[in-house]
Amino acid sequence: MDTMRDRLAPVLTRLLDEDPRVAVVLAEIGKDGFTEAMRDHPDRVINVGIREQLLVGAGAGLALAGLRPVVHTFASFLVERPFEQIKLDFGHQGVGGVLVSAAASYDWPAGGFTHMSPGDVALLDTLDGWTVHVPGHPDEAEALLRHAVAAGDDKVYVRLSVQANEQALAVDGARFLPVREGRSGVVVAVGPMLDQVLAATEGLDVSVLYATTVRPFDEEALRRAVGAGPSADVVIVEPYLAGTSTSAVNDALADLPHRVLGLGVGRRELRRYGTVEEHTAAHGLDAASLRGRITGFLGERTRAGVVS
Questions:
Q1: Domain edges within the chain
Q2: What local confidence, expressed as pLDDT, does residue 228 receive?
């Protein structure tokens, strides 16, 4: 299976051909995929070199000129390093664009901590009005990229990863999808966490929701999954900083007694390079670890057929 990022250049190249408003801004990373597009659209495919603040500023400038900019590099260089430019050049100036990241939380362990960005979504949460897509499969990435570019002048972040689920689902850029139904709690699996969550909850009496658009947060889907019970237990499993969306869950269930457990990437830096799989296990996001953490939180009543 190809990766989400493998879809980026072909999809954007087609969009450049189809829509004269689309522009692409790169900071050296990923430029080889746009060789043909640079030749065909030299005024709308711009490589600024390794200058990430300029990358974001140039994208915002194109938006001010009426274009729909798509800005791409690794997440740590796209969100963390030029955060001031995101805040001011896009937010303060009131323009929109599409930020598309790669490398996610720890997709390239050999690159070290400089190339890891588990806090990107939490950081964007400090700003107003950003839509955040977290696809879990290359097909979903392609669909959400097209959705993001077509989203008028909105501010959109698309988080690509080498981690992926085996099967794509029909995502629409808005709703959470119900995958399983149960009575003893709700587990929300974000993007590439779905397969691990499904394996972890096999045989448990819990509902599973699949989320690929986490901002805005689909409060209605969560409330439907919780149902009309006297209280609610929710676990959210995210491929970035643990607890990023616990406040969103709390807001959705503000009028109901509830408990929420946020699972994701820990704050402690793992200083050995290792592999993606080793980082996943070390952060407790593999299926076996998730099962223990989920059942520990929800209790024995999660076993299928057991109702307390």
A1: 4-159, 177-302
A2: 66
